[in-house]
Specification:
Length: 494
Amino acid sequence: MLLRSFKDAPDNMLLQIDGATDEKETFNSALERSTRCATAFRNLGLKYQDVIVIMAPNHIDLVIPMYASLYLGIKVAGVDMTLGVNELEDAFKCCLPKAVFCQSSKVKTVQQALNILNLSTHIISFDEDKDCLSFSKFLNKFGGDNMPGDFKPAEFDPVEAHAFLVTTSGSTGLPKTAILSHKNVVMGFPNLMTIRTEFPTPVNLALVVSPIQWLSSTFTFIMGPILRYTRVQTSSPTTPEHVFSLINKYRPDFANMSPTFLRTLLKPGDREKCDFSCLKYFLVGGSMVAEELVQEMQKINPKLQIAVVYGLTEATGTVFDSAYSPITSVGSPMPFLQYKLVDPTTNEEINKPNVLGELRLKGPTIFQGYNNNPEMTAAAFDEDGWFKSGDIFHRDEYHNYYFFDRFKMLLKYRNHQVSPVEIESVIIKHPGVLDVAVTGIPDAECGDLPVAFVIPRDGHHITAQHIKDLVKGKERLYAIHNKISSYYLIHSHW
């Protein structure tokens, strides 16, 4: 699909822009470079279902090895480029890469991690480096002189072939690497476009702020060529000021962000630096999304279609269709997935509305398991083959689903189950609060004591007592307000 999309694209159509340098690349250029890279992989000896690692900023070269790997049935693992030697050792141990693509500044760190594992892995630097082969020299040395029309992709079963290895830990626990097949990607990624009406290009320009290791960036890297839209990304750090400049200069009409980063962009005194009116479609998800945040964005841009999305790496992206659901809901079921809510302690299915239960899923987008981790894979599914999300939801009588909290994140105060998300949703309503995170500290008498970490808005003075009084005023939280911890951190800025 990718190869056909590149070949069918109009002449000189832009695929990608690096907003840090204004460097641009067309579909034709990406076709030529990605097929040469695939040829180079073959000449280097990489085979079907080998693994490559990509760990670099979102520059123009980043996706070329990704596309080349997918043509050949080679697995792609995006890895955080800020990891140190010990963390990289864990990442490489999990996927055993045959090649690592990184920046020259990380070559020595990568080599140290590979040496510890005694791996003979090719290191290719996207920029020039005296200690290893650069990407441009790699293409020249191994890429051959064949034209893109001469290139033949590998033949393999998309159901069986693994496409991506994506690091995930949910919200808690040690990192794991989820295996996503080509079938998972083809079935899962297009669903984020359900509210669009234009074909084949539902958007003109997409803004990418997620790093390579996040599935939200992979979505745009894959769907851009297939749906024929241009994307603007950046090889510079995605500070609020830089993102403002990207929006003001390139005028994207589609973006996908976490609620924490969006809240930073909308900080009073800073938001005026950016003209958000160009945006037509906006996805926000990855953690709890406050209703007030959505309303604030819609007030700034009344024409914006904004969707609160709930997704799982293990489900290859979004799990619900949020196009026509209430603003506080994460959406309604999609027709290709099966859903049920169960009591996480008894495993009994919940068939009544407005009753909390763990979400469990079946369907063609559910992942293939955790790479080289059969124990965690087995633990992720119940005895009937349902994937256990670990997230607590309830649904209304119209089958709109509402996120409550991660099961593992629930606090136990005496005999009460306390949701950090529920407390956060109360505190965030305070006009002086920019953002908040709630967790717990162990207490011998009570079990867990909730702790609120609050970032105030500039110009507002709020105290710990203000926050306690706000929580105390909510009937549902009354049982624990007298014991809420007095630990309270305030930062005046990010």
